[in-house]
Amino acid sequence: MLAGCSTAQPRAAGDWAGYKESGQASFYADKHQNQRTASGALYRHDLSTAAHKKLPFGSVVKVTNTSNGKSVLVTINDRGPFVRGRVIDLSKSAFSRIGNTASGLLNVEIEVIR
């Protein structure tokens, strides 16, 4: 009996270094301040954290705005975003370091550092 359609094997936690992905980045709305993330940590706007659908909690990811070349390092501590085309949801301060929050979305490339 088959368990699924994919033949891809899950990655071990240490196998993610160098993983790259491109798409859009969004940022957490103000209503999420001091709410629990999927990892159990409290979300805070001033920390350099992010949500990703599958990267292990604690992964350090370099997020680069493809329009201006600015980058920021963030730590994954939540799951999401669950909107087509979005690859990462950044804390408000991390987003503001690489782009203007008034834009709402940025085109980015992400790379797992560790």
Automatic annotation (TrEMBL):
<keyword id="KW-0456">Lyase</keyword>
<dbReference type="InterPro" id="IPR012997">
    <property type="entry name" value="RplA"/>
</dbReference>
<feature type="domain" description="RlpA-like protein double-psi beta-barrel">
    <location>
        <begin position="21"/>
        <end position="110"/>
    </location>
</feature>
<protein>
    <recommendedName>
        <fullName>Endolytic peptidoglycan transglycosylase RlpA</fullName>
        <ecNumber>4.2.2.-</ecNumber>
    </recommendedName>
</protein>
<dbReference type="Pfam" id="PF03330">
    <property type="entry name" value="DPBB_1"/>
</dbReference>
<dbReference type="InterPro" id="IPR009009">
    <property type="entry name" value="RlpA-like_DPBB"/>
</dbReference>
<comment type="function">
    <text>Lytic transglycosylase with a strong preference for naked glycan strands that lack stem peptides.</text>
</comment>
<keyword id="KW-0961">Cell wall biogenesis/degradation</keyword>
<comment type="similarity">
    <text>Belongs to the RlpA family.</text>
</comment>
<dbReference type="InterPro" id="IPR036908">
    <property type="entry name" value="RlpA-like_sf"/>
</dbReference>
<dbReference type="InterPro" id="IPR034718">
    <property type="entry name" value="RlpA"/>
</dbReference>
